[in-house]
C-alpha cells in the first residue's frame, strides 16, 4: 500500500476512534474499520483495485510493476561486499519520527530511548546509505537508515534482505517504511527509512547483521549497485526485559479450537502465538476483530487491529501495539468470529464446456459473463455477500493448478483477455463484499475430461460468534 494511502487510512481511523472510544469493542472496531474503508475510497475512487496470486512486497512491487510496464527486464550486477565507514555526523533519530506513526515498535523504541546508535555509512557511485540506528526484540528487527542521492538520476534504494550470522530473516511482510509519498529519490534528495523484518522464534540467529541493498536507477532501468555490508546488532537486544507466558488455554469458535501457545511481552510489542488445532473440521483463514483486553479492578484497557506474522493454515501470530497488559490483573483475547470453511468444501468443480459450477462452498459464488470478450478456456468467478463484516474481508484465492475428471493435474495460465479482477467492500451500512476472480484453464482444457476441479486456498466465509480466552492472570499461569 502506498504511504499516502496509509496516512489517509490512519487519519480516518484516528478521527473515528476519538469520536466513539466509549463504544463496546465490537461497535468501535466496525466503526473504525468503516472509516478506514471510507478513507481508502476517497483516495482510490478512480482506481481499480487489483490483486495477484499471492502477496507482493510494498515498495519493490511498485518498482517492478513500473519496470514490467516498460517491457524491460532488470539488469542485475552481483552483490559487492563493502566496508562501512563512520558517518560524517551523528544521525538525529527524530528524523525518523514521522515513520513511527506506521509502526508501534518504532514509536516505542524512540520514546524509550531503545535505539542502538550505529552511525555507519557506505558510499558508491554518488549514492550514500547511512545506517543511523537499529533495534530488535527477537521477533521483529528494525534498521533505521537514510539514503542520499548525489547523482543526476532518479533512484530507488531497496533493502533486499537482512540476516544475522548468516541466517536470513523472513521476507514475510518485510518492507522499508518511509514518510514520503514514494521511496523514489530525486537527484540531490535525502530520504529516511526504517526497514522492518520478522524473525522466526525457532531460528538460530547470531550476532551482527548483514544488509543487502539494491539501488535501482530509473533512467537506465537497471540496478546501479548491489551492496552487502555488516553492522553490529545482536538478534535480541531486550532479552532480559521480555516476559513470556504459556497459558495453555484454547479459544473455541464455532467448535473450532485455537490453541494459545505463547504470549510474549517485549519493550516493543505484544506477540500472541496461536495454533489451529489439527482436529478442526474447518480451515481457519482469519480471526475477525481480535481485541486484547486488560483488566485491573474497574480499569479496562483495549488494544485493537493487530498485525499478523507467519500466518498460514496451521498458525498465526498476532502483534498488538502495546506491551504492558500483563501488568494488569488479567488479560484476555476476544474475537468477533472467524473466517473459515469446511475442509471438505475447499474446492470448486466446473464444467468448462457448459460454463457451469457443479460444486462450490456455497451459492455466493457464480460464473458470470465478463464485460469484454473472454479467451477460450477463460471464465470469471463472481462472489458477493451482504452484511458479513466486509471491513475484515479478503479476496478469493485459488490454487495455481487444477485436475480433470481423470485426476490429471494441469497448470492454470495467466489471464488472457478478462480484465475484471479485484476485491471491493461497500463501506455502507449494508457492509457487503464483492469479488471478481478470472481463471484461465487454457483452450486445451476444453478437451480435457470434464468436470475440472480447482482447490481453494482462501475463501471469505465469515462465522460471527464472539468468544474470548484468558491469556495472563496475576493468579499465575506462567
Automatic annotation (TrEMBL):
The chain crosses the membrane at residues 49-73. Residues 413-438 are annotated as: Disordered. It comes from the Bacteria. Residues 421-430 have a biased composition (Polar residues). Keywords: Membrane, Transmembrane, Transmembrane helix. This is DUF4179 domain-containing protein.
Amino acid at each position: 500500500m502506498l504511504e499516502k494511502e496509509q496516512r489517509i487510512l490512519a487519519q480516518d481511523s484516528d478521527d473515528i476512534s476519538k469520536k466513539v472510544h466509549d463504544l463496546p469493542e465490537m461497535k468501535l472496531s466496525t466503526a473504525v474499520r468503516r472509516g478506514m474503508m471510507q478513507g481508502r475510497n476517497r483516495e482510490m475512487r478512480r482506481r481499480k483495485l487489483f490483486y495477484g496470486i499471492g502477496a507482493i512486497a510494498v515498495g519493490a512491487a511498485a518498482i517492478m510493476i513500473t519496470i514490467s510496464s516498460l517491457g524491460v527486464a532488470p539488469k542485475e550486477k552481483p552483490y559487492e561486499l563493502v566496508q562501512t565507514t563512520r558517518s560524517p555526523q551523528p544521525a538525529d533519530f527524530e528524523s525518523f519520527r514521522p515513520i513511527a506513526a506506521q509502526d508501534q515498535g518504532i514509536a516505542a523504541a524512540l520514546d524509550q530511548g531503545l535505539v542502538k546508535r550505529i552511525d555507519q555509512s557506505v558510499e558508491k557511485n554518488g549514492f550514500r546509505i547511512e545506517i543511523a540506528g537499529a533495534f530488535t526484540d527477537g521477533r521483529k528487527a528494525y534498521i533505521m537508515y537514510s539514503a542520499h542521492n548525489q547523482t543526476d538520476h532518479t533512484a530507488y534504494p531497496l533493502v533486499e534482505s537482512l540476516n544475522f550470522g548468516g541466517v536470513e530473516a523472513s521476507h514475510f511482510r518485510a518492507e522499508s517504511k518511509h514518510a514520503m509519498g514514494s521511496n523514489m529519490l530525486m537527484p540531490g534528495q535525502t530520504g529516511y527509512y526504517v526497514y522492518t523484518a520478522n524473525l522466526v522464534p525457532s531460528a538460530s540467529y547470531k550476532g551482527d547483521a548483514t544488509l543487502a541493498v539494491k539501488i535501482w536507477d530509473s533512467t537506465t532501468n537497471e540496478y546501479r549497485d548491489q551492496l552487502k555490508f555488516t553492522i553490529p546488532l545482536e538478534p535480541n537486544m531486550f532479552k532480559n526485559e521480555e516476559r513470556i507466558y504459556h497459558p495453555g488455554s484454547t479459544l473455541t469458535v464455532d467448535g473450532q479450537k485455537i490453541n494459545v501457545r505463547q504470549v510474549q511481552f517485549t519493550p516493543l510489542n505484544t506477540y500472541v502465538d496461536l495454533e489451529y488445532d489439527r482436529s478442526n473440521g474447518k480451515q481457519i483463514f482469519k480471526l475477525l476483530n481480535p481485541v486484547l483486553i486488560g483488566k485491573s479492578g474497574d480499569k479496562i484497557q483495549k488494544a485493537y487491529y493487530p498485525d499478523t506474522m507467519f500466518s498460514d493454515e496451521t498458525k498465526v501470530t498476532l502483534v498488538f501495539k502495546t506491551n504492558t497488559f500483563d501488568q494488569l490483573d488479567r488479560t484476555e483475547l476476544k474475537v468477533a468470529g472467524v473466517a473459515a470453511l469446511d475442509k471438505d468444501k475447499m474446492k470448486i468443480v466446473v464444467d468448462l464446456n457448459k460454463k457451469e459450477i457443479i460444486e462450490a462452498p456455497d451459492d455466493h459464488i457464480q460464473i458470470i459473463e465478463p464485460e469484454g470478450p473472454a479467451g477460450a478456456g477463460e471464465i470469471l468467478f463472481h462472489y458477493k455477500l451482504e452484511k458479513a463484516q466486509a471491513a475484515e474481508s479478503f479476496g478469493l484465492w485459488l490454487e495455481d493448478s487444477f485436475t480433470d475428471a481423470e485426476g490429471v493435474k494441469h497448470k492454470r495460465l495467466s489471464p488472457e483477455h478478462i480484465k475484471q479482477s479485484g476485491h471491493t467492500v461497500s463501506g455502507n451500512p449494508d457492509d457487503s463484499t464483492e469479488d471478481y476472480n478470472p481463471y484461465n484453464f487454457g483452450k486445451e482444457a476444453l478437451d480435457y475430461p470434464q468436470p475440472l476441479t480447482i482447490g481453494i486456498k482462501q475463501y471469505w466465509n465469515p462465522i460471527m460468534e464472539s468468544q474470548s480466552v484468558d491469556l495472563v492472570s496475576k493468579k499465575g499461569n506462567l
